Structure to design on (393 residues):
């Protein structure tokens, strides 16, 4: 429930009890009303449902001794309507209009837990300058916003690392006024309303309220002669080029953070960060699995049976791998250290997957040789399949 509800809603009336009612009387009345208006006993009746919600809300406050005490204190101060809009402070002429929604930042419909969790006392220490530091302060330096960009890298550049220029079009500090918003030769002056404090204070009866100065928007200064380039804002949209270093081994989807290279801060605040999202274009030969490069190489049936020395490319040359005799299709050979270089200068491997190619057509001579080969070769072991086959014979 909102803080405004505590002031405007009479929970005692909702439960039908006097303000002096005991805890047992409040509980008894709640149970009776909740039972009568419960949705299960009034199916399809929206009014009963609203009554049930109101009763439950009232009991959530009055059924808790601490909440009830804070509620009573709040109602005793604000319940008379002295602080409502168009009311006069203390009932005397000359008071300033005040809306309870202004007191809570205009968030009449917002929720809280007893005024932000600090209770009635913390509420007053935070909103009344006479009872502690008020929330209205001059707007100091503000950090600039973060900026995001996307860069597409070639596969080899991502593996080796590369430095590329990155062109951005984003807000930046005005070069004419250097960010202060004033015409060259002039300077911002102290706000005549808040005298440079950035906040204004007004009295309301025995209390004092502070809020950001509306004349200078809480900055504390105003620009009398505005910069012709940025029109007093201190910033302009500009195109800038940065040289971005992409480290070796950067992966697709990785995000690189460049601290302080985002939008400039306001009123001397620090700049935001630049986040560069990396997209890596696929390579026509190589794939990648972590720090390992992958490559698929076709071999003939004869090479798989007899074995062979296989020369394969890497990103920086070639290597020769020994294919043992009797190698099955799908076997993976490893070329150590020919993958992606890690940050500790160690490198991943090149994983070569062998793909035995079966020709669709063969010559008569090749067929005769294969038939002779088949006669001299024992059949493949399929005993584990024979029993299942016989079941369907």
């Amino acid at each position: 429930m909102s803080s405004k509800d505590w002031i405007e809603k009479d929970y005692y009336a909702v439960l039908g009890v006097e303000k002096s009612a005991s805890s047992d009387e409040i509980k008894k009345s709640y149970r009776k009303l909740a039972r009568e208006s419960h949705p299960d006993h009034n199916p399809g009746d929206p009014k009963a449902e609203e009554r049930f919600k109101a009763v439950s809300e009232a009991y959530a406050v009055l059924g808790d001794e601490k909440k009830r005490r804070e509620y009573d204190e709040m109602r005793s101060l604000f319940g008379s309507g002295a602080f409502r809009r168009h009311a006069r402070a203390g009932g005397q002429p000359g008071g300033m209009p005040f809306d309870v929604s202004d007191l809570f930042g205009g968030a009449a419909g917002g929720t809280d837990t007893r005024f932000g969790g600090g209770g009635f006392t913390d509420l007053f220490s935070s909103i009344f300058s006479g009872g502690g530091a008020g929330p209205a302060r001059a707007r100091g330096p503000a950090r600039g916003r973060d900026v995001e960009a996307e860069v597409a890298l070639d596969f080899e550049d991502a593996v080796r690392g590369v430095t590329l220029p990155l062109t951005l079009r984003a807000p930046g500090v005005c070069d004419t006024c250097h960010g202060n918003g004033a015409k060259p030769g002039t300077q911002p002056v102290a706000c005549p309303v808040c005298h440079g404090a950035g906040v204004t204070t007004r009295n309301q009866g025995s209390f004092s309220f502070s809020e950001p100065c509306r004349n200078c928007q809480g900055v504390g200064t105003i620009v009398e002669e505005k910069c012709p380039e940025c029109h007093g804002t201190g910033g302009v949209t500009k195109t800038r080029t940065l040289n971005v270093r992409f480290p070796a081994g950067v992966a697709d989807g990785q995000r690189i953070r460049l601290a302080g290279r985002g939008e400039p801060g306001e009123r001397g605040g620090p700049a935001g960060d630049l986040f560069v999202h990396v997209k890596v274009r696929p390579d026509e030969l190589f794939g990648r699995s972590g720090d390992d490069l992958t490559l698929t190489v076709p071999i003939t049936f004869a090479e798989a049976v007899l074995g062979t020395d296989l020369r394969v490319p890497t990103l920086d040359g070639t290597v020769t791998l020994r294919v043992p005799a009797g190698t099955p299709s799908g076997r993976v050979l490893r070329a150590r250290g020919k993958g992606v270089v890690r940050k500790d200068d160690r490198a991943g491997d090149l994983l070569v997957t062998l793909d035995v190619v079966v020709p669709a057509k063969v010559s008569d001579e090749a067929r005769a040789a294969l038939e002779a080969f088949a006669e001299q070769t024992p059949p493949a072991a399929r005993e584990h399949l024979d029993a299942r086959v016989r079941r369907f014979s």
Summary: The two ends are 77 Å apart (CA to CA). The chain has three domains: 3-127, 147-280, 287-361.
